């Protein structure tokens, strides 16, 4: 593909990374990708991208490197070391990390990358798998204005609401707040579902009318069918939300912000994971309310 668009390297082709990288290909970008599973690399190639056997190979000629991996340890693993992004990307490249990690990891990454002449944005997203597929993600960005401006066309191919929230790490801080709100919201919906069912109310009708009023939310719209059908195929796994609740409770503690309800929900997420439900969608918080209410799980 020959065009004037920047060449993109994409590292991390999971539930989010695969559809996002494909949206860039659809927008006309030349995308070279690397991830741990060969079948995901094959999927990228089938969609019109180029597979790479290593990070070094993927990033060597890239103008923009985008990373989408599960957590801080993975970001550090792909960024640092002789085979990592910082040693192998060219000077002047722009690294956009779209993973959800600790704000501190993003701050350190930007500092270390600057020494190599590589610009960095932290740009975590909200919207889940559906938002990634539909290219309607919310993207909260931390970094410098000129780099944000340069990244805008790429980010617009991936999402709808794209906001620079402040310097390095601020995107991650806003993402942590996002995960706090989402978890508490899902928990409230889950409690309402069990309460309604135990009261003998038609659940579908109840959720429809609730969603039309002040209790309505994107969470309820997106997760209503999960609750009704007890379908917990992962759009966003409990394991990952557990990681994010750790990030927000730790970051809030560092700045002296109290999260009384968030801390309780963090424990409920942790208990769900301990009960073996870590691979389920976060709407499976419903299962812990069922257990607490003496109701058969998934009934």
Task: Average the pLDDT over all residues and give the rounded result.
Answer: 96
Helix-strand makeup class: alpha/beta
Q: Unreliable segments (pLDDT under 50, ≥5 consecutive)?
A: none
User: What is the terminal separation in angstroms?
Assistant: 52 Å
Number of strands: 9
Reading side by side through the largest sheet, how are the strands ordered?
3-2-1-4-5-6
Proportion in β-strands: 5-15%
Tell me, briefly, the overall form.
globular
Radius of gyration: 20 Å
Order of helices and strands: EHEHEHEHHEHEEHEHEHHHHHH
The biggest beta sheet is recorded as:
6 strands, parallel
Number of helices: 14
Q: What percentage of residues falls in helices of 4 or more residues? A: 40-55%
Structure, described:
This protein is an alpha/beta fold and about 300 residues long. The protein has 14 helices and nine strands. It starts with 7 loop residues before the first strand and ends in a 7-residue tail after the last helix. The relative contact order is 0.10.
Short note summarizing the structure:
The chain is an alpha/beta fold and 299 residues long. The chain has helices at residues 17-26, 38-46, 55-59, 72-79, 85-88, 103-114, 128-134, 145-156, 170-198, 203-211, 218-229, 238-255, 260-277, 285-292; strands spanning 8-11, 31-34, 50-51, 64-67, 94-97, 119-122, 125-126, 137-142, 159-166.
What are its keywords?
14 helices; three-stranded mixed β-sheet; 9 strands; 299 residues; six-stranded parallel β-sheet; alpha/beta; globular
């Amino acid at each position: 593909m020959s065009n004037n668009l920047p060449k993109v390297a994409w590292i991390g082709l999971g539930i989010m990374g695969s559809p996002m990288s494909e949206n860039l290909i659809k927008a006309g970008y030349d995308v070279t990708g690397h991830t741990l599973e060969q079948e995901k690399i094959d999927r990228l190639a089938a969609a019109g991208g180029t597979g790479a056997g290593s990070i070094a190979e993927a990033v060597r000629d890239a103008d923009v490197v985008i990373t989408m991996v599960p957590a801080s340890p993975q970001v550090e693993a792909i960024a640092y070391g002789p085979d990592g992004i910082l040693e192998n990307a060219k000077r002047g490249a722009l690294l956009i990390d779209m993973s959800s990690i600790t704000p501190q990891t993003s701050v350190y990454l930007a500092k270390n990358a600057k020494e190599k002449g590589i610009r960095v944005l932290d740009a975590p997203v909200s919207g889940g798998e559906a938002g990634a597929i539909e290219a309607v993600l919310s993207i909260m960005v931390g970094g410098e204005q000129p780099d944000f401006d340069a990244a805008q066309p790429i980010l617009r191919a991936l999402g709808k609401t794209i906001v620079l929230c402040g310097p390095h790490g601020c995107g991650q801080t806003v993402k942590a707040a996002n995960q706090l709100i989402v978890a508490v919201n899902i928990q409230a919906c889950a409690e309402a579902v069990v309460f309604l069912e135990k009261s003998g109310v038609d659940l579908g009708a109840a959720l429809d009318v609730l969603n039309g009023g002040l209790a309505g939310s994107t969470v309820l719209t997106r997760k209503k069918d999960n609750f009704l059908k007890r379908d917990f195929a992962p759009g966003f796994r409990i394991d990952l939300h557990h990681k994010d609740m750790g990030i927000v409770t730790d970051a809030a503690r560092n700045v002296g912000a109290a999260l009384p309800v968030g801390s309780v929900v963090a424990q409920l997420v942790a208990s769900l994971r301990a009960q073996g439900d870590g691979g389920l969608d976060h709407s499976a918080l419903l299962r812990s309310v069922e257990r607490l209410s003496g109701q058969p799980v998934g009934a």
